[in-house]
Amino acid sequence: MKTELRVAAYAVCVRDDEILLARWVAGDGTKKWTLPGGGMEHGEEPVRTVVREVEEETGYLTEPTALLGIDSIRRSWLRRLAGPGDFQGLRIIYEARVTGGSLRNEINGSTDLAAWHPLAAVPDLARVELVDIGLELWRERPPVGRSRRTDPANG
Hints:
The protein has about 160 residues and is of the alpha+beta class. It has two helices and eight strands; from the N terminus they run E-E-E-E-E-H-E-E-E-H. It has helices at about 45-60, 130-140, and strands at about 1-10, 15, 20-25, 30-35, 35-40, 60-80, 85-100, 110-120.
């Protein structure tokens, strides 16, 4: 069985009761809002990853202000030619503040739109679960940085 590990860093940027999100475009064309961020490059430090990815996806320069938590997801797959696989995604989630730049959309990337959304409107957005996990970590600040949604003890 093929195994794959992807480490990524994401930002929860909230100001004036709005959250900054990027619209992710899946391989099948489905579009859902997500936290700005993405995969670490080999040898890259996680804080540099989140700063680079937020700028790529939104145009903003940011400063991480707190480590909110680390989320882990795991998925199995069966691909026609590759056979069975086991994917684990390790997602490092930071709180960050905008320090410069200007809002713009990513060109030729995994996202196609960046926007501020009222926190109250988030439940009505088509979004990935990472948005809810990030907001939970931002609101609750659990001591070990683990979301209730993904804590194995919550079954």
